[in-house]
Amino acid sequence: MFRLNLCLGKKPIHVNVCFEEPLIDGPVPKIDLPTHSERTKLPGQLPLGTLKEMENFLNSHKPLVMVGILPEKAYGTVLDFLKQYKAPVYCEGISSLRGHPDIKDIEIRSGEQMIHRILRSGVCDSVLRIGGVPTTRVWRDLEDKYLNIPVFSVSFNHFTGLSRPVQHVNSLDLLSQVEFSNPQHENIKLNIEDSSRAETVRALLTKYPESEQGLIYSLSKRMDGGSIYLGNSLPIREWDSCSSHDARPLRVAANRGANGIDGQLSTFLGWAHPEAENWCLVGDLTALYDLSSLWATSQLEARKLRIVVINNGGGQIFSRMFKKEIFVNKHQISFESWAKMWNWSYQKWHNIPVNSELHDHQIIELVPNWEQTQEFWKEYESLWRE
Ligand SMILES: Cc1ncc(C[n+]2csc(CCOP(=O)(O)OP(=O)(O)O)c2C)c(N)n1
Question: For residue 233, what pLDDT band results from cuts at 50, 70 and 90?
């Protein structure tokens, strides 16, 4: 990660330069950065696709659609396309289309593991990516595990998001012009399996209401209609697997791509919507990395701001990756004094209250029940064992 803090004119600018995986898995080739007019020749990318190429792809494949982050102005175009094309679709939370009632019959709702099943079974023979580079782990597996699965990507920038050749068009607007015949998907069988699994996951979320996942499920309902910013690290993944499909947030976003746990609260403060209830969901280490962000409070325009810090005592994403505690950076820090320092209101929650009065500058320390979280994981993982 390469970071640069600039102060140009009146506005501070924080630039996170993002490098795509694979990072340093082998010798590093020299890359001559392309000029603007040469961008279509980025390494690993075929010549810029056209409408015709996209039509050929859509008509000759049975793709699984993955939708990543979208600009707000593209929500309608993408939704219309999905409704007409009718292929199975996995919408990441940050697409803001997750759980949209119009795609209920085609949306994969039981979780990322279902994508693996679909790709392995051959129900879908390719991937159509729409929007930003997906944060979902499966996307990375397209580099090696699913190397033979063709990928077509329709985005709003030049990043193909994979180091292997990908057909890529840099315009979401093309989705409203493209013509196709509907693919022959085996949707019915797929839907039954997905719905019953989604139902089982929901049952687990209510069985363990104070687990980290159960809290996110209930909180997502409480955030209905809100503007939601997801910070690192588990909140992004847990939102995708555990938030309620019935909740309809106004917009959901994250600062992924940069991947840094720094600057997340500052991003949220700048991104907050003047009319909506703004929620920020971050891990405790992520919050600790940006404690000074609240210094800007006195300069903020009036906004309803709720920062929810999931305090699970460290970087718990690593507790599942590595068996060594040292990676977790365990701590017993509480966020009450931090709230006090910047004159924000503070509440500590062990469950999600149905009604609780919140202030415009509100910090909520959300403390999951460790045992319930572990029990949830155990049962959740056993669901997906073949
Ligand atoms: C600037 C920066 N430093 C370190 C990392 C490595 N990193 C990724 S996730 C993570 C832990 C995040 O912990 P927390 O915010 O508590 O979230 P949790 O894992 O508990 O969900 C760390 C240290 C990073 N991504 N960015």
Answer: confident
Compute the mean pLDDT over every residue in the chain, rounded to the nearest whole number: 89
70 Cβ below 6 A of ligand 1? no
Question: Which tens digit of pLDDT belongs to each residue from 135-146?
Answer: 999 999 999 999
Burial annotation 189-213 (CB, 10 A radius, 16+ → b, else e): ebbeebeebbeebbebbeebebbbb
**DSSP code string of 168-189:** EE--GGGGGT---PPP---HHH
Cα 230 to ligand 1 centre (Å): 13
Per-domain residue ranges for the chain? 42-191, 209-383
Residue 36 has pLDDT above 60, yes or no: no
For residue range 140-191, list pLDDT tens digits in order. Answer: 999 999 999 999 999 998 889 999 989 999 999 999 999 998 766 666 667 7
The length of the chain in residues reads 386
User: Taking 70 as the threshold, does the pLDDT of residue 355 lie above it?
Assistant: yes
Instruction: Note the CATH architecture for domain 42-191.
Output: 3-Layer(aba) Sandwich (3.40)
Phi, psi of 141 (to 5 degrees): -65, -15
DSSP secondary structure string, 194-257?
HHHHHHHHHHHHHHSTTSHHHHHHHHHHHTTT-EEEE-TTHHHHHHHHHS-TT---SEEEE-TT
As a whole number of angstroms, the distance between CA 335 and CA 162 comes to 39
- Domain 209-383's class? alpha beta
Closest CA to 377 of 171, 232, 208, 131: 208
- The string of DSSP codes covering 320-365 is HH-S-GGGG------SHHHHHHTT-EEEEESS--SS----SEEEEE
| Probe residue for ligand 1, chosen from 15, 211, 232 as the CB with the greatest number of ligand atoms within 8 Å | 232
Residue 130 β-bridge partners: 67, 154
Q: Is the CB of 232 under 6 A from ligand 1?
A: yes
DSSP state of 7: E
Q: Is 311 in the pocket of ligand 1 (CB under 6 A)?
A: no
Q: Which amino acid, 300?
A: L
Q: Is the dihedral of CA 31, 33, 38, 40 positive or negative?
A: positive
The closest of 299, 296, 280 to 236, measured between CA atoms, is: 280
| The two domains 42-191 and 209-383 share their CATH topology (first three levels equal) | yes
- pLDDT of the residue at 376: 97
